[in-house]
Amino acid sequence: MALEIPEVVINRLPIYARALAALAEQGETVVSSQALGQALDVTPAQIRKDLSYFGRFGKQGRGYNVPGLLTRLREILGLDRQWHVCVVGVGRLGQAIVEYGGFGPQGFQIVAAFDADPAMVGRRVGGITVRAATELDGFLHNNRVDIGVVAVPAAVAQQVVDQLVKAGIRAILNYAPMTPHVPRDISIRHIDPVIAMQSMTFYIKLAEGGGK
Amino acid sequence: MALEIPEVVINRLPIYARALAALAEQGETVVSSQALGQALDVTPAQIRKDLSYFGRFGKQGRGYNVPGLLTRLREILGLDRQWHVCVVGVGRLGQAIVEYGGFGPQGFQIVAAFDADPAMVGRRVGGITVRAATELDGFLHNNRVDIGVVAVPAAVAQQVVDQLVKAGIRAILNYAPMTPHVPRDISIRHIDPVIAMQSMTFYIKLAEGGGK
DNA sequence: TTCCGTCTGTTACGGATTTCACAACCGGAG
DNA sequence: CTCCGGTTGTGAAATCCGTAACAGACGGAA
Ligand SMILES: NC(=O)c1ccc[n+]([C@@H]2O[C@H](COP(=O)([O-])OP(=O)(O)OC[C@H]3O[C@@H](n4cnc5c(N)ncnc54)[C@H](O)[C@@H]3O)[C@@H](O)[C@H]2O)c1
Ligand SMILES: NC(=O)c1ccc[n+]([C@@H]2O[C@H](COP(=O)([O-])OP(=O)(O)OC[C@H]3O[C@@H](n4cnc5c(N)ncnc54)[C@H](O)[C@@H]3O)[C@@H](O)[C@H]2O)c1
Q1: A29, A46, A53 from A33: Cα distances, Å
Q2: Strands annotated E in chain A
Q3: Is the dihedral of CA B62, B63, B67, B73 positive or negative?
Q4: Of B79, B194, B208, B212, which to mutate for an interface test with A (greatest number of A Cβ within 10 Å)?
Q5: CB neighbours (10 Å) of residue A117?
């Protein structure tokens, strides 16, 4: 609406929302920025400033209304709708993703899965039927799909991403161990446990004494 | 050695290393910061600055020696050693992690897996035998384990993290959808596809026109 | 050897992000 | 009704980070 909102702020909002959901489940009705910050290892000022980009949700002397703030955050992030997701690559990882029960309850509905391997096509995985990779373009043009999950080998990931982008996908979740190129107006996030570990080893080594 | 190196810089190094490994495999022997930056969607200045924290690895007029820089980065990150990893929680996700062939070649050896479910204990998964969760403490005290992977339900994740930390683990890769509390000298990274999607929806919504 | 185009390492700058600090505010106690 | 402990929202200050720019170095051409 008004300001340009820093991307780091947007990236923190889902964390806040998740914590608020947990508090709501415990029956908490109000929370201060201090209490929330303590739970999330974030400074209270950070939380207040982040939220202030979007409005004034708290009450001085009290804190924030838990269900109220949760609802607002969900509106801001667009989590009050259903999002359509497709998965490309139904190998080991792709199957695990399709079968994972954690997306649906959060509003991310897996509406299709594609694989290039004829042996995979037609099989039912986690309630949906695997389609041929050749059907990808057609499907995306005839159905609204918001987010594409890329779970193919790195060697073909760029090609798959290009297909998704050309077909009008707005966001990509990439599991392949490479950095695909996407236009600036497409969101992309990477999930890579190896990369995550490889930055932690630096600090382990440092703690051991920097040297050997 | 000298300066305090920003964590963002450390987090980018594995990405550089991965790209260099790909170039090396293609037989490339030199690369400029410009070329590398183009491949990774990072500015050349960023790459040069990042590397300059650690030394002078390039040659003016030429660029960087690919295998040489890769070797140096691997040394800096500690990727020239073998790291011992344990997995806690061998459910769907934990099994997929243990069976995933992508860790070993990168020097991350899964040396043990633990589960609280008696039905799971004793089974062989991906070449290792699942141990009882009660053995966790003992195992960690008798064996060097560098990194713990947490793949248990969110409700018990904090408890598992506490156990790992108390037993002297230095780094944790957390797959549970919550933010466990860890001491400042322990590294932790989170992998959560739902959170990743939940920040992208903000931008999809924005692109659709901010409104509806 | 000299010249030229290229590319690094580094410093200086500016923008982005976080932290600080406090006025304004809230609701309850007395 | 007033006071008080507690907490927000927010500018200003401080810090962190990325970008720009250029001197100096390199290798090849001639
Ligand atoms: N980030 C993670 O946590 C993680 C974990 C495991 C694997 N991975 C990565 O995910 C990817 C898949 O891993 P995996 O273990 O499932 O591999 P896999 O070989 O089991 O599965 C890959 C699947 O992609 C299919 N495929 C190939 N080309 C395709 C195309 N053009 N269109 C559609 N489908 C195509 C193959 O037929 C296969 O079924 C790899 O890049 C791997 O490195 C990531
Ligand atoms: N980040 C992701 O990509 C991703 C994907 C799927 C699941 N998850 C998360 O990972 C976790 C595991 O998911 P899942 O689908 O494998 O669930 P799951 O129920 O199949 O497996 C959980 C396992 O943990 C074991 N366990 C429970 N308490 C334990 C303890 N104290 N010590 C050791 N083991 C214990 C259980 O016996 C079970 O085998 C969940 O928190 C889930 O939300 C994350």
Answers
A1: 13, 9, 15
A2: 30-31, 58-59, 63-65, 83-88, 108-115, 124-125, 128-132, 147-150, 171-174, 187-190
A3: positive
A4: B194
A5: 13
Cβ of B46 near strand D (distance < 7 A): yes
- Residue B132 backbone dihedrals phi, psi, to 5 degrees: -70, 145
Q: Which of B79, B100, B185 sits opposite A201 (nearest CB)?
A: B79
Q: Which domains does chain B have, with CATH numbers?
A: 7-77 (1.10.10.10), 83-195 (3.40.50.720)
Judge: B78–A14 Cβ closer than 8 Å, yes or no.
no
Return the ligand number nearest the Cα of B162: 2
CA of B122 to the centre of ligand 1 (A): 29
pLDDT in tens, B93-145: 999 999 999 999 999 999 999 999 999 999 999 999 999 999 999 999 999 99
pTM, entire model: 0.96
| Strands A83-88 and A147-150, bridge-based pairing | parallel
Reported in sequence order, the residue ranges of A15-169 that DSSP labels E, i.e. its strands, are 30-31, 58-59, 63-65, 83-88, 108-115, 124-125, 128-132, 147-150
φ/ψ (deg, to 5) at B124: -95, 130
